[in-house]
Amino acid sequence: MQRNHTRLDGKLRFDLVLEPRQQTRIEPKTSNSYSGLAAVCGVKFIAISGFRPDNRAIKYMSSQSAAIEVWLVPLPSTKLYLPYRISVPTAYGSGSAEMLSFQVAH
Are 42 and 69 in contact (CB under 8 A)? Predict the structure, then answer.
């Protein structure tokens, strides 16, 4: 099931459409890093308003939706999910970021 998330960054309004692809198990990299299941989702970028139709960056991001991916992991004791890994294509190659650990304070 797809999930739409409308965003406004102060100038640009856009939708991020998350489409589940698979579940994968994350093995811990260090003794205190996350281990468990991650929901792997494709992300489709849809520009809505606040942009110029000839903007190269907007056109590029809109055309790369098959390659944008986010891995979501559950936040313990909640119904929330955190982005564990994000991969986004750029004009110069793929860019990615990965969370090493998180801590929940009570």
Answer: yes
How much is the pLDDT for 5? 65
Identify whether the C-beta of residue 40 lies closer than 8 Å to the C-beta of residue 24.
yes
Whether the CB-CB separation of 42 and 18 falls below 8 Å is answered with yes
- CA dist 63 and 86 (Å) reads 17
- Residue 84 structure tokens: 């564990």
Angle at 59 between CA 55 and CA 60, to 5 degrees: 115
Mean pLDDT score across all residues of the chain: 84
Stated pTM of the model: 0.78
Integer CA distances (angstroms), 94 to 9, 73, 90, in order: 23, 22, 6
pLDDT above 80 (res 65): no
Residue with tokens 């990299």, as numbered in its chain: 29
